[in-house]
Amino acid sequence: MSSSAEEIWAILREVVESQKETDKKIKEVTANIGRLGNQLGEFIEDTVRPAAVRLFRERGIDVHEVQQNVSVQRGDGGLEVDLMVANDLDLVAVECKSNLKQQDIDEHLARLAKIKRLLPKYANTRVMGAVAAMVIPDNVARYAYSKGLFVIGQSGEHLEIRNDAEFKPAVW
């Protein structure tokens, strides 16, 4: 084999090794981003939880119970709810995100439709929904509102329900 062919093969081996190292680094970065995303989601839930009682009481829903990270599996159905605030008559299931997207709303609407079946202790309650996020694009907030969801977002140093006084939540 000529020296130029050997040099080419040596370069190719270096490229392959370099690509393996790059792939390994990408996997590490992806895993770190995933962990950071989970921590950010937990931070948002922890921020919304204490404000939820005040926010919903201001809207006439006298909250007595707050549950975080509710997970249920019955038969072939299951669901996870970030935050649930309830009293004897009402339940509001809150989905918490760092950056709210329309897909998140659609997924939450599907989740809300399952609550009474998968959590039968709430079968006789008014089930409502809310979304909370650090970043809520205007078009996404309007979409959530149009679907009958409370929209919770940051206002200065506090959280607020952004729906106007005429808002009527959808009830499942």
UniProtKB/TrEMBL annotation:
Protein name: DUF3782 domain-containing protein
GO molecular function: nucleic acid binding
InterPro entries registered for this protein in UniProt: Restrct_endonuc-II-like, tRNA_endonuc-like_dom_sf
SUPFAM superfamilies for this protein: Restriction endonuclease-like
Superkingdom of the organism of origin: Bacteria
